[in-house]
Write the structure tokens for this entry.
Amino acid sequence: MTAFHYATTLEETCALLDDGEDTMVYGGGTAVQILLKQGVLFATDLVDIGGVAGLDQIEETAKGLRVGPLVTLRRMETSPVVQRVAPLAAEVYGRVANPRVRNTASVAGNIAHGDYRLDPPTALMVLDATVEITSRRGSRKVPAREFFVDFQQTALEHGELVTGIEIPKQPESAGAHFAKLSSLAANDWPAASAAALVVEGSRGKREVRLGLGALSHVPVFLQFETTADTPVDAVVEAAKDAASPLLEPIPDVRGSSDYKRRLGLVAVEEAVRNSWKEGSDDDRRTSFFGRRRRR
């Protein structure tokens, strides 16, 4: 039977995690409860960190945001600070499952779960976010693009837990869009998802960043550079060409590999087409998310 431990400090949490062989953190608990009931999780001990002060804060920093591990997905969706500083993150967190799940699930538990179908990593990767990891040995920071290392496996090692996510400020001139395509129900895991961010560069260049979910055994990141005057159709084709070799979707009840691969290219096109902004430097259009928030 799984034993619960109720930590009151981060130091106590790290000690409990380090001392146990099969000990896990219990934050929001949405994924843990399901996996325990399904009999696919065999943790002997769970460390509830709900009583550790200061882990549920969203802080605006000089560079962007610092998000505590116990911040719920719903707060990421609705926080005015997140909507202003990193609107793509607010949009993507707001597309996870349903309000009941988002009101319970935590940002750290969401990524620590390591599922390849997750929505938030697509935004965290294109926004160049960093994951703070802490243990008895101290703290280290891992780029979100390197956090997911294999099928349902993250950069977390024994005795470690996620203690924060740092998200740089989204450039005001950047175009952004999140495309999520489901084949069963709107609240189900996606069959394919793509977050795109188009960032203005120097000398008429633009950088296109893409984060892909449910299209390989881990969330996928890619980027390429093009010129600002490139026709949007050409940019879309370049994005699809860059993404195609990286698509290795896992077949399941939501569709075959071929079906998901085709759907993935549709998601890439939607994300890139909607995030690509036309116009000169003196007449930039407002980003997709900026327009939507003001409606």
In short: The two ends are 51 Å apart (CA to CA). The longest helix spans residues 257-275.
